[in-house]
UniProtKB/TrEMBL annotation:
This is Cupin superfamily protein. GO terms for molecular function: histone H3K36 demethylase activity; histone H3K4 demethylase activity; metal ion binding. Residues 98-242 form the JmjC domain. It comes from the Bacteria. Keywords: Iron, Metal-binding. The keyword Nucleus does not apply. Gene3D superfamilies: Cupin (2.60.120.650). The keyword Heme does not apply. It comes from Kitasatospora cineracea. SUPFAM superfamilies: Clavaminate synthase-like.
Length: 291
């Protein structure tokens, strides 16, 4: 393995951290990109082994998510009818006949190699990292122009895909969704080829289209950053976890006493908790696997 996990994605780590991180989109050409972590042969095996299921698998057509029922026929298990499991033949037919894009969600939760890659990168960046896999038919666009609530490393695995990246949001009052307004000027217009990595900073609007001739496959690693809602949640948790109050005070005097204790405790805790501490704790909480 190379010296660091980040070096699997960038050629010059210092230049990336000082000039690109959270600042500008770029095409990166690392010496050892992780193109072998989920090869095409393994994708075929995953589709055919019968245990891959929604919502880990989905099919999209630009603005539309195809109903799961179209590629997840019901099956009988222990005498009961169950649904949600993908049928490889149906998935391939929709990709071939209706030009649907295959989307594998949260691959880090169920694929060992991708999980190792994400955990290694997360430890180095101090941020939560998740993974998504896309197979897009030639000449098609899987999603409209949109903004992601994460910095994104796009690793081109096979085929080629053209990307258009616009600027980031004007302020912090934005939401990660389809960009129906003017996304601004194009900052980067590039065709990504196998082994190359595209870096898209958090909130920068972008879209992509597979080049003609062959399907495009890529792995997107999303590097999640703290949002205001995360800060609120962790601050509330710190207050709740470190202050013991009776569950149901019996009268107004007891209620007033509980309120006073809570306010005193909050004042003491907040006096000792710096903004940097709260941010660090929140990032650490986000790094922990979900229970």
């Amino acid at each position: 393995m190379t010296d660091t996990w980040l070096s699997r994605f960038v050629a010059d780590e210092e230049q990336f951290r000082t000039a690109l991180w959270r600042t500008a989109p770029a095409v990166l050409r690392p010496a050892h990109p992780p193109v072998d972590v989920l090869p095409a042969a393994e994708l075929d095996r995953l589709l055919d082994h019968g245990l891959l299921r929604a919502p880990y698998l989905g099919l999209v057509q630009r603005d539309t998510h195809l109903p799961d029922a179209r590629f997840c026929p019901p099956r009988v298990v222990l005498g009961e009818l169950v649904g949600g499991y993908a049928d490889g033949r149906a998935v391939r037919a929709l990709i071939r006949d209706e030009q649907a894009t295959l989307l594998l969600r949260y691959v880090d939760q169920w694929h060992d190699g991708v999980r190792t890659l994400c955990r290694g990168l997360a430890a180095e960046l101090g941020r939560q990292v998740e993974a998504f896999y896309f197979l897009t038919p030639p000449g098609t666009q899987g999603r409209p122009v949109h903004r992601d609530d994460a910095d994104v490393f796009v690793v081109q695995l096979s085929g080629a895909k053209r990307w258009w990246v616009h600027g980031g949001p004007a302020d912090g009052n934005w939401v990660p969704e389809r960009e129906d307004g003017d996304p601004g000027e194009v900052l980067l217009d590039t065709v990504l080829r196998p082994g190359e990595v595209l870096y898209v900073p958090r909130g920068f609007a972008h879209r992509a289209r597979a080049e003609e001739g062959a399907p495009s496959t890529h792995l997107s690693l999303t590097v999640r950053e703290v949002a205001s809602a995360n800060l609120y949640t962790v601050a509330q948790s710190l207050l709740a976890d470190s202050c013991e109050l009776p569950g149901r005070p019996l009268d107004d005097a007891a209620l007033t006493g509980a309120a006073a204790r809570l306010l005193d405790h909050a004042a003491q805790l907040l006096a000792e908790l710096t903004p940097a501490d709260l941010l660090a704790v929140t990032r650490q909480v986000m790094l922990q696997p979900a229970a």
